[in-house]
Design goal:
Length: 373
């Protein structure tokens, strides 16, 4: 397909409650959408980079800049760009996986809409609804945490992910188990906050073994595969990696070294949804379950995550919560969950597109990029 042009849209989306993790505290989702215009269809993608470079080195202003300066020009000069072809065309630009992933998604979406094929079908999805969970950030007190979780459980969620860090781990986990029992699937995410921790902090991770957790996510540093392998040999609870899994090769290495036995897959972190499928495939070949991580996406990114999560190996609930968990008004028709299940949108491509009226409300900047400048 010839890309006639593409538009970068910056959205200001207030979050219903601030999301506090060890790497970020977001009260407003500063979102970046990509709209690709071709003769036969338009396509949409979302760049999951956050406002600040605290989860990885990417951040939304930087992503918009790298797209305009380096990535979009590499696509606009060609007369026939395909979804499969986006990665290779951008490969000489080092890094920036979230920016690249958004462009690949938008081109793929346009291609699929023109062909009348859904993204789930194209990726090899096997289910039309997926199990989902909810991630809870840091709360100021145990009581506040329990209240937030009670709300999510009342909404029907059956899997909760807690942020943990040294000093906030055993106590909140024990309180959640005490209050909600063992029917609630519970996992924790440390975002590398135990990297370089002292023995007492690491002893807390051992103590978490007594709480029947689904997994402990990314306790140590992004590049500390040996440390994760050693920790995994001590813990009964499976170790899952997120930030460390930056590509298919990284997944193979981490699994071969015994650094993880579960993998969190995020298309933005690995450079695109097609690479995410390859990560899924190598995990599945090795019997490693995967689940779809979340980055506070709007409905555009959420729709793409659902398609990815419909693949066979996604056997654990992902961080793909309902739109209302994040925004009073989503930029797409709202995604709902019932009893911890979410339906995939029907229709070609990602199956949704922005609601014009809402887009007008939340869009704070548009930048049009075309070959003619
Ligand atoms: O529900 O989309 C969501 C958030 C899920 O906790 C979640 N994401 O480390 O995976 C993570 C975490 C995150 C939150 C990452 C904020 C970056 C910023």
């Amino acid at each position: 397909m010839k890309i006639e042009g593409l538009e970068l849209l910056r959205l200001r989306m207030p979050l219903v409650t601030p999301f506090r993790s060890s790497s970020a505290s977001e009260a407003v989702r500063d979102a970046l959408l990509v709209r690709v215009v071709t003769p036969s269809a338009e396509g949409w993608g979302e760049c999951v980079a956050l406002s600040h470079p605290t989860y990885t080195s990417e951040y939304v202003d930087g992503a918009a800049s790298i797209m305009a300066t380096y990535l979009a020009p590499r696509l606009l000069v060609h007369n026939d760009v395909t979804g499969e072809g986006v990665g290779p065309l951008l490969a000489d630009v080092q890094g920036h996986p979230m920016a690249k992933a958004a462009l690949e998604m938008a081109v793929l979406d346009a291609e699929l809409r023109a062909d009348g094929e859904s993204l789930a079908a194209r990726l090899g999805g096997v289910r039309d609804r997926v199990e989902v969970g909810v991630a809870v950030g840091f709360e100021p007190s145990i009581e506040a945490l329990l209240e937030v979780i009670a709300g999510h459980v009342d909404d029907g969620y059956r899997r909760v992910k807690l942020k943990i860090a040294p000093g906030w781990d055993v106590e909140p986990v024990a309180a959640v188990r005490e209050r909600f029992g063992h029917d609630l699937a519970l996992q924790v995410d440390a975002n590398s906050s135990y990297a370089g921790a002292d023995r007492s902090a690491l002893a807390a991770l051992d103590a978490l073994d007594d709480f029947d957790l689904v997994l402990v996510e990314q306790p140590l540093a992004v590049d500390d595969l040996v440390g994760h392998a050693a920790l995994g040999a001590d813990l009964r609870t499976p170790i899952c990696l997120d930030e460390s899994i930056t590509s298919t090769g990284a997944a193979e290495t981490a699994i071969e070294l015994g650094a993880c036995s579960v993998v969190n897959i995020k298309a933005g972190r690995v450079g695109g949804v097609l690479e995410a499928v390859r990560v899924h495939d190598v995990c599945r070949q090795r019997g490693v379950p995967v689940w779809c991580g979340g980055m506070l996406e709007t409905g555009i990114g959420r729709a793409a995550n659902l398609a990815l999560a419909s693949l066979e190996g996604f056997t654990l609930p992902g961080d793909i919560s309902a739109s209302r968990r994040y925004f009073d008004v989503d930029v797409t028709p709202p995604f709902e969950q019932v009893g911890g299940w979410m339906d995939l949108p029907a229709g070609p491509g990602i199956g949704v597109e922005p609601l014009e009226g809402v887009l007008e409300e939340v869009c704070v900047h548009r930048q049009w990029l075309s070959a003619s400048g």
